[in-house]
């Protein structure tokens, strides 16, 4: 129960709560539980800690299950407990290995072995079975003093810095040697210094208008709601034709692209008349391959000279690559679909697009796109961004999760991508949270949830590469490999000459 409480405390560090310092006492509680534990005890305590973080931290998923999937609340609780238990296996394995192979009270145990094992567990959780890297600890620090490591090492560089700071404080508690305070002070100072470096060059401000239609999820795929939905987006856009780029969210046009061909051609011409670009979400059904794709289309003024025009299956589009399990495709669907309506959610039979796709073009500007869920995979977006990419674009529909904390966590993750890659972020959503950010992830424009409104903002494009954009996570992989080797070599059991605390 103590471990569960420590894990639950960490949830308060993430959005919308934003109490980023509480991660440190949360980790210190885990350290105290692991310090003299046997491998079995360490595994159970780590499991309790992770359950405390994942079950409350992911409880918002039940909204889609109960309100739209037809699953009773007790059954949803059991399913989410199973999901949390699965996610908890990764830190459980890390802490079992920690207690099994690093038992001696030596500084390398906490400063090398534990951070390396924790990061490896996080990466495995973000990769196995398509991955689920939600609630990585580094995300909680988007407004904290360690955020400067993100452009260098990515979000997991912040996680590493958090673990090192916590480990140093734990060593201070054990040894009563104030010198250990130098490490967190140095890390915070280094992060603040890194934030002063300039990795990119900036262009002139671009006027953008992000349209939030606030269409109820219950009406989203109702054929009778198609015309009112489109009219809502048209009406909201009409007074913003002076913008350079207008953005509609994920599946803002809830119909098949081929069926909307005439409308889209007319929309393309109307936007060109106003010298405006439009990016809009829609669904495409490829009749040749017999596959559905979740798409963002580029229309209106596309290339800089305005000569390109929309036509069905034109190239200026982005097909979602990383699909959401259950929501966009159903693994083992022959078994799962008959079980409950939850496995037959609307539009749950998508196919993935190419892993790396060209940037979208809007009025000559290049935008690296990610649709909804796939923004949580940093390496995938990193591969899409080019040195001459101007903006990051993510469109989403978080109406599945109501007024829960899920959309806020999702927004926080998207902000981290802007910080890692030093690109302004344009995030258009159906019912919130619609934002624009600067290259450091700070919010420059935001409109409230659950309101049909337009976010007007001016954003400056950025060109160049951060170290994380150039090298990805390879420096952290190197730290983990070297850290584990050094920690094994420095174990006092293996080398009696190694000094203890």
At the fourth CATH level, what is the homologous superfamily of the largest domain?
Carbon-nitrogen hydrolase
Write down the domain tally: 2
Strand content: 5-15%
Order of helices and strands: HHHHHHHHHEEHEHEEEHEEHEHEEEEEHH
Structure description:
The chain is of the alpha/beta class. It folds into 2 domains: 2-197 and 471-489, no CATH class; 203-322 and 349-464, Carbon-nitrogen hydrolase (Nitrilase/N-carbamoyl-D-aminoacid amidohydrolase, 4-Layer Sandwich). It contains 16 helices and 14 strands. The protein has helices spanning 2-11, 23-34, 39-57, 62-68, 73-101, 107-125, 150-153, 155-175, 182-194, 226-238, 261-273, 333-336, 378-384, 406-421, 467-471, 474-489, and strands at residues 200-202, 206-212, 245-247, 277-286, 291-300, 317-319, 360-362, 365-371, 391-396, 425-429, 435-437, 443-446, 453-459, 462-464. The strands form 3 sheets. A 6-stranded mixed sheet has the order 6-5-4-3-2-13. It has a 6-stranded mixed sheet with strand order 7-8-9-10-11-12, with helices on one face. The protein has a two-stranded antiparallel ribbon with strand order 1-14. It is globular and about 75 Å long. 50% of the residues are buried. Residues 494-501 have low confidence and may be disordered. Belongs to the CN hydrolase family. Apolipoprotein N-acyltransferase subfamily. GO terms for molecular function: N-acyltransferase activity.
